[in-house]
Design goal:
The chain has 470 residues and is of the alpha+beta class. Helices cover 52% and strands 14% of the residues.
């Protein structure tokens, strides 16, 4: 564009014959191009200044080498110098004003987007905190009812009935021995890492963790979403927990083990309390599952006859004789069994082995026992249980990338303006917006008001110089 402007000025000056050429020829085009360089060219100020001064200098040189020397030539050149100086001052004012406006808009946009990202991050943290207390389906229902007007005498109770649910209770055997030989801080750290490992296993085997009671861990499978393989997954979960406790036994050098009990039946699941929510499951089958754990054998998974009926022959079992170790099992007349061997590796024989809607499997990792790579190691797995590491923006580069992405999206959102304005008149369709727009102070008038005296003064001085020479 600058080269085209230069060629235009040269052609304009040399268009007339030598005798008719005047020093003021082409000045209007040079003034126009000098000003447009500042307000149109998308370059830095120093480049705008260099291009404008270069254009002015070229014009002066062409005038000086012109063969036509008139009587008032010096006055015309002086007037041209004044006009060129004034147009550069006016262009610089316009450039800095619009640059300031753009930088202010950019800064405000960055600040608003940063606030948006911070709010999103805080919202994600709150969401993860809520999901650490309540299951996802219950949290979603409670979130919908927050702020709702209570019409009855009592507040809404979030309870639901689920049938054919497998309940797993697991307790650490020999916990007293650990607590007497291990420092308190080390004991808490080891338990935290162990239960974090259990939480990972519960995700793998589609378990819903209910709560942790001291050294007792219990969860359910088959609720809130029903699964025909809930009992199979519960048994795999129990076997993995027994395998995971071996690392703790090796680390603490104490005879600790896991006693796991599984029973299948119906449960009533819901949230208790108004200020401090507590999700739990209630039924006689839950109590019986607890007794299955207390009447079990350390290092083995103790199941009821009802649970065995849902296993479809995927495990080799033997008589558990739980009635001889637990009075409640004997009174309930429940026959129990112990899991001896896995006959079908996970996920063979379960729903996870079947292709999903996209032709992929949920999990294709076989499991007859916990692999060496997945074995619990407090040193390698110290970050287990820290929630939300993938949801936070901890990387500055990632944060800047998201910010740039939001800025570019905002600049390209012309559809939003098209929805709210008339395409021909550009007036807002909403009269309230149009009223606010019309009564908004236009700060761009400052350039016009400050540039007008400068323009008038430079024109007046040029006129006086030419008049004096004549």
């Amino acid at each position: 564009m600058w080269v085209i402007e230069v060629v235009h000025i040269i052609c304009d000056l040399w268009l007339f014959p030598g005798g008719l050429r005047m020093a003021s020829d082409g000045v209007s085009w040079t003034l126009l191009y000098s000003y447009t360089i500042y307000v149109i060219f998308p370059v830095r100020y120093r480049y705008c200044l260099l291009m404008s001064l270069g254009l002015n200098f070229l014009h002066i040189c062409l005038i000086l080498v012109s063969p036509s020397q008139q009587q008032d030539f010096s006055a015309q050149v002086s007037s041209i110098f004044i006009l060129f100086f004034s147009v550069n001052i006016l262009g610089s004012m316009s450039f800095f004003f619009y640059e300031k406006q753009q930088r202010r808009a950019f800064l405000e946009t960055c600040q608003s987007l940063e606030a948006k990202l911070v709010l999103e991050e805080e919202s994600q943290k709150q969401e993860r905190l809520l999901l650490s207390v309540l299951p996802k389906h219950v949290a979603a229902e409670i979130r919908q009812d927050l702020g709702a007007v209570v019409t009855g005498q009592f507040k809404k109770i979030y309870m639901s009935r689920h049938e054919n649910v497998s309940i797993l209770f697991a307790d650490i055997v020999g916990f007293t021995a650990i607590s007497s030989t291990c420092p308190a801080a080390e004991l808490v750290r080891t338990l935290n890492e162990l239960f974090a490992r259990f939480d990972k296993l519960s995700d793998k085997y589609h378990q819903l963790r209910i709560k942790i009671l001291g050294d007792c861990y219990y969860c359910i499978s088959g609720a809130p979403e029903e699964r025909p393989d809930h009992a199979v997954l519960c048994v795999h979960m129990g076997l993995s927990m027994v395998e995971a406790i071996k690392s703790v036994r090796e680390k603490t050098k104490s005879p600790v083990d896991m006693r796991v009990g599984v029973h299948t039946g119906g449960v009533l699941a819901g949230v208790m309390g108004q200020k401090q929510w507590q999700f739990d499951v209630y039924s006689k089958d839950v109590e019986l599952a607890n007794k299955m754990e207390s009447g079990g054998v350390p290092g083995m998974v103790h199941i009821s006859e009802t649970t065995l009926s849902f296993l479809n022959g995927e495990f080799e079992v033997k008589d558990g004789d739980g009635a001889s170790r637990e009075e409640a099992i004997r009174l309930a007349g429940v026959k129990t069994y112990l899991i001896v061997k896995v006959l079908k590796e996970y996920p063979e024989g379960t729903l996870d082995a079947q292709p999903q809607g996209n032709g992929k499997k949920k999990d294709s990792t076989p499991r007859s026992s916990v692999p060496e790579a997945e074995a619990f190691d407090p040193l390698l797995d110290s970050e287990a249980g820290i929630i939300g590491a993938g949801g936070e923006i901890n990387n500055v580069e990632e944060y800047n990338r998201r910010l740039l992405h939001e800025l570019l999206n905002r600049e390209s959102e012309e559809e939003n303006l098209r929805k709210h304005t008339n395409p021909c008149s550009l007036t807002f369709k909403d009269s309230s917006y149009e009223h606010e727009w019309r009564y908004t102070k236009d700060v761009t008038l400052m350039v016009s008001l400050s540039g007008l005296p400068l323009t008038l003064a430079s024109c007046a001085v040029s006129y006086l110089l030419l008049a004096h020479s004549l």
